[in-house]
Amino acid sequence: MRLLYRLKSLYYYLNNDRIMHRNFFLIVVFLSLFSCMGTVDRLEWALTLAGENRTELEKVLQYYKDDSLKYKAACFLIENMPYHYGYEDARLDSCPYYRMCSE
After folding, report:
1. pTM of the model
2. Which has the closest alpha carbon to 78: 103, 52, 53?
3. Measured torsion, CA atoms of residues 42, 43, 49, 52, in degrees rounded to the nearest 10
4. Contact, 78 vs 46, CB < 8 A?
5. Nearest to 47 by CA among 56, 39, 38
6. Which residues, at least 6 apart from 73, have a Cβ–Cβ distance to it below 8 Å?
């Protein structure tokens, strides 16, 4: 009786281990497939978000198209522009700290 119980326990343990490994493998495959799908062109996205300034940014890219290193640098800066912003207001001009920083 004990031997039968131990064999059943071993069977369930091995079966659960296989299921765990299979599930882990499926999760890795699933994440690998979906991480490659739906890549957004960050440069085009940044240019779209630029709105009226898009033409100015395209002029910069056109200007640096012959120098690959400067072109890549310009692309990097433009791609990361959506994450940075600044404030502009007449009330900020009267702030002494703002005047000190802008000089």
Report:
1. 0.50
2. 53
3. 180
4. yes
5. 56
6. 64
DSSP string, 16-79: HHHHHHHHHHHHHHHHHHHHHSS---HHHHHHHHHGGGHHHHHHHHHHTTTSHHHHHHHHHHHH
pLDDT digits (tens, 9 = 90+) for 22-79: 667 777 777 777 766 555 688 998 999 988 999 999 999 999 999 999 999 999 999 9
Contacts for 47-52 with beta carbons within 8 Å, 24 or more apart? 47/78, 49/81, 49/82, 50/78, 50/81
Query: How far is C-alpha 78 from the geometric centre of its chain's CA atoms?
Result: 15
Residues in Cβ contact with 3 at an 8 Å cutoff, skipping those fewer than 6 apart:
none
Amino acid identity, residue 98?
Answer: Y
How crowded is the C-beta side of 29, counted as CA atoms within 13 Å? 6
**Backbone phi, then psi, for 89, in 5-degree steps?**
-160, 150
If phi > 0 it is left, if psi is from -120 to 50 it is alpha, else beta; for residue 85 that is beta
